[in-house]
Amino acid sequence: MNENRFRWRNRQLREHAAIIDGKLAPTKVITNATYLNVYMKQWMEGNIWIDNDRIVYVGEAMPDKTDGTEMIDASESYIVPGYIEPHSHPFQLYNPQSLGLYAAQTGTTTLINDNLMWLFLLDEKKAFSLLEEFVELPCSMFWWGRYDSQSVLQETDQEEFQEKVVPWLNHDAVIQGGELTSWPEVLKGDDQTLYWMQETTRLRKPVEGHLPGASERTLTKMKLLGVDSDHEAISADEVLRRLALGYNVGLRNSSIRPDLYGMLKELVDRGHNQFDHFMMTTDGSTPGFYEQGIMDHCVKLALEAGVPTIDAYLMASYQAARHFGIEHRVGSIAPGRTAHLNFLHSPEEPSPHSVLAKGEWMKRDNETYTVEKPIDFPSFGVTPLQIDWDLNEEDLQFSMPLGMNMKSSVIMQPYALSSDASREELPEGNDESFLMLLDREGEWRVNTVLKGFTNRLGALISSYSNTGDIVLLGKNKQDMKIAFNRMKEIGGGIVLVHDGDIIYEMPLKLGGVMSDEKMETVIQKEKELREHLRSFGYRHEDPVYTLLFLSSVHLPYIRITPVGILDVKKKEVLFPAIMR
């Protein structure tokens, strides 16, 4: 039986009903509970019966049988539904398992996840088998179905990518289409993507847009073409424009765009009091950002901005569940729902002191529980990166007159080179460095110069990138060779080299993109990376996002992609990739 379609088998359903009839005992009973009823929009009092991973009763009664039942007195707590992260990118150095377990301990017990890296790393059979493994985690894991790669791929890679779109959309664990970063192409006549959007709607799954800066006219046209939600608003005016047109609006508090508090504060100050079509998201933040929490921190910011208490909690739970059509499974404390419960000291303190996820204790009295549910990623083909080719002198030739100038962590503008890029080392003091994008199979390369990343670092290499290809940059070609060879030795990852010495490395043993370590370890390693890069002149907000988005064509103005240096607006290849 498909676990994503039918969470509970017939036998289990009969047992749940038998508990109500007094024939069987529940596994847990929470007594004296003050809980948030999302349908009544009020705090209520009663008892909550749980059988393994499901809520079977909420009300004033107690079960007739309690043999072996764990009794939990909640008289000192307020209980809210487990939080939902509606827009997760679970590949930002961490992996979906490590993120999911960490998130559950903070009260975020359901995640709606990007599938992009599975599209690059795995065939459908292995990917879909892997999705079944995530069902066994104590958190609830759902997925998106991407329409586009966020970059421009080589022809054969693009064809392979497109062949995977429809099977993913049809999978039961996939509950939305998107995010739609290629919307400009749809507006210009991309009927293939428009067909996929229609298929998503036919499957009764929402379509998520990615519409930064979109005008009222553009938002209206995208609504006509099938987009249901968007999370790219960065001001109160943009939020209200989307809401007025019928969008469900994701409000973002991420490491690259911490806009949530400011937008909500302005809305509240204007007297806005309608929050039923708002969700909140951390939008795939980099690891260190999650030290402060995940959705619990979003609720905290909403409360501080003046959002009514119950609305703040609904934005982090029920509103997302309703939008995705999974409110029968998650997002509320009611009979039949998955037993995701957060125990709070007070409604003003959204970080839970105790968490039940699928009826399992993930945290109790502020003590986190270690949950051992290992996923054997290599058995599904998610293995260390194996590179059977070498970097040679010819690869390290930089002759083009055009470079990429960092205006922010992720915005790149073209500029005319000021340094002699044919030399072995670029001078310290200026902020130019060699930059390469290398095919992980070694078939092609793209070379240019990047301005604004470092003023003296010898080399950085990263097999973590938007397309899974290899980013290599630095001021010294010999250091770049050392970094490349070390990255090969550790099976993929991020390596820093300076003056011939390896000064930092972070192995990414899962496909060269994700760490197999626990979230806490990944957080510390990413903080070390940031500190190193700041000491070498990195002055922007988020270096991890810089590495990720160098090849992402949904951002302006110029990108280094698998087909070459691309003018994003004109969709024109300025300098093509070189075959090796």
From TrEMBL:
It is an enzyme of class 3 (hydrolase). Residues 78-361 form the Amidohydrolase-related domain. Keywords: Hydrolase. Pfam families: Adenine_deam_C (PF13382), Amidohydro_1 (PF01979). Its EC number is 3.5.4.2. InterPro entries: Adenine_deam_C (IPR026912), Amidohydro-rel (IPR006680), Metal-dep_hydrolase_composite (IPR011059), Metal_Hydrolase (IPR032466). It comes from the Bacteria. PANTHER family: ADENINE DEAMINASE YERA-RELATED, N-ACETYLGLUCOSAMINE-6-PHOSPHATE DEACETYLASE. It catalyses: adenine + H2O + H(+) = hypoxanthine + NH4(+). It comes from Thalassobacillus devorans. Belongs to the metallo-dependent hydrolases superfamily. Adenine deaminase family. Residues 430-571 form the Adenine deaminase C-terminal domain. Gene3D superfamilies: Metal-dependent hydrolases, Urease, subunit C, domain 1. The lineage of its organism: Bacteria, Bacillati, Bacillota, Bacilli, Bacillales. This is adenine deaminase.
